[in-house]
Each structure stands twice: as C-alpha cells, then as structure tokens.
C-alpha cells in the first residue's frame, strides 16, 4: 500500500512538472511588440535584424486607417 501511495505521489509530481514546462514553452512562443514604423520597408529591415540577432520570426502588421506598421518578433 505504501509503495502504491509513493508511486501515485511521484506520478502526480511529475505530471505537475510537465504541466509547468508546457506553460513556459507556450509563453516563449508568444510574440513580443517591438515598435511602430512609418513604412513597411523600415519595419521589414528592423524585423530582419531581430532575426539575425536570434529571434525565430517577425511580422509587420499595418494599423487600420494609418500608414504605420507595428513590428512583432517571436
């Protein structure tokens, strides 16, 4: 009986650790806002620089009704 209780406790602890690790991985995959640029070419240039520095990807999203682009990296 004690072995079963110890096994169940260890299994629950391992499941909790796996759950926490999954949360961290999801948080790392979220995009980070960098800034606003007045032209798409300036936004793309900045995004490419962030990729060269180690970020996985970038996106330049136009703000509706304006000519400004917001840069996000992940």
Q: What are the main properties of this structure?
A:
74 residues, three-stranded antiparallel beta sheet, alpha+beta, 2 helices, 22% strand
Topology diagram in text:
Elements: H1 2-29, E1 32-37, H2 40-52, E2 58-62, E3 69-73
Antiparallel strand pairs: 1-3, 2-3
Can you put this structure into words, describing what you see?
With 74 residues, this protein is α+β, with helices and mostly antiparallel strands. It has a domain of 42 residues. Helix content is 55%, strand content 22%. It contains two helices and three strands; from the N terminus they run αβαββ. A three-stranded antiparallel β-sheet has the order 1-3-2, with helices on one face. A hairpin with a 6-residue loop joins β2 and β3. It is globular and about 30 Å long. About 34% of the residues have low confidence.
Low confidence ranges? 4-28
Distance between the termini: 49 Å
- The helix/strand order is HEHEE
Number of helices: 2
For the biggest sheet, the summary is: 3 strands, antiparallel
- Order of strands across the widest beta sheet? 1-3-2
Let me know the average pLDDT: 76
Backbone CA Rg:
21 Å
Strand content: 15-25%
Report the structural category: alpha+beta
Please tally the β strands and state the result: 3
Principal-axis shape = globular
Helix content: 55-70%
């Amino acid at each position: 009986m004690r072995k079963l209780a110890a096994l169940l406790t260890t299994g629950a602890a391992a499941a909790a650790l796996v759950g926490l690790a999954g949360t961290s991985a999801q948080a790392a995959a979220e995009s980070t806002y960098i800034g606003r640029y007045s032209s798409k070419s300036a936004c793309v240039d900045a995004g490419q620089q962030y990729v060269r520095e180690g970020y996985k990807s970038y996106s330049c999203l136009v703000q509706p009704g304006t000519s400004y682009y917001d840069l996000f990296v992940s």
